[in-house]
Known about the structure:
Layout: H1 2-21, H2 29-44, E1 50-55, E2 71-72, E3 91-100, H3 102-106, E4 113-120, E5 131-137, H4 151-162, E6 170-174, H5 180-189, E7 192-196, H6 200-206, E8 216-222, H7 223-236, E9 239-245, H8 248-251, H9 260-269, E10 278-280, H10 281-284, E11 290-296, E12 307-309, E13 312-321, E14 326-335
Parallel strand pairs: 1-3, 6-7, 6-8
Antiparallel strand pairs: 1-2, 3-4, 4-11, 5-8, 5-9, 9-10, 11-13, 12-13, 13-14
Helix pairs in contact: 1-2, 6-7
Amino acid sequence: MENTLGLEIIEVVEQAAIASSKWMGKGEKNIADQVAVEAMRERMNKIYMRGRIVIGEGERDEAPMLYIGEEVGICTQPDAKNFCNPDELIEIDIAVDPCEGTNLVAYGQNGSMAVLAISEKGGLFAAPDFYMKKLAAPAPAQGLVDINKSATENLKILSECLNRSIEELVVVVMDRPRHKELIQEIRTAGARVRLISDGDVSAAISCAFGGTNIHALMGIGAAPEGVISAAAMRCLGGHFQGQLIYDPEVVQTGLIGESREGNLARLKEMGINDPDKVYDANELASGETVLFAACGITPGTLMNGVRFFNGGARTQSLVISNQSKTARFVDTIHLFDDPKNLQLH
């Protein structure tokens, strides 16, 4: 899968990032997201594959493109038999977030990126559009920190695993009213808090890379993005756990569904009989082969954002594979005009 799709999925996230970045700072988050979706889908439908969106822009009646269940790839098109034999190709599940951090793009803030994860059919958890309590940490803490432990306990464990004092640890938390007590506990324990307004996929993945000065992600964010984060963290050997949150009172900022009881019923309809189950990275991204790709839209901890020059653009992407056990950073020049007329910077 990596040999077949590795370069092409990089181009998928690059095209989404370039399209969205043209709306950076214009205050139009919906348009920034829409153009990313369109660009991602257009490039995806040129790939020689049979893909199915398991995490996307919403249900079919809510999203015209990249909706959950949509088939993508050249081998899913009406005239597919002119290009390939669909029955010979492995079926692929795809989780996408064409513009992770729409507000970040709209207001010209750091940390937005185009992301996707792929695996063979059934290899990615089809998370409902709920929220998720998350815990991400570096590889040395894998299986030692635990989402059921207090922040104070986990910081002590992290301190020992990383051979750092608690005062040297930095924890990323979404800046939301629901996290008031969590933030206070982290600070009381002695660690430092980096508050973010959006974009916790980047924060989760950064835990697995040395030199980012991010040592943990704690708190509640969107569940679909949790699956994408888990796919990357599984490939990197980092720690990731997620637990679905279905009670609107816990989230405080709105939740799909009108009531706790209604959300529980919806989970049961989806076949989730244990709504309080804690999932680890291997359960959220369980496929034999897992690939993750991201491209910076605005500058971030791991990647630069899209930079335009006269006649072209430069992007920085990241592709991670559990198959080759690699994390590749890809720096790409995109030429929109005749190269003879350009000066590359």
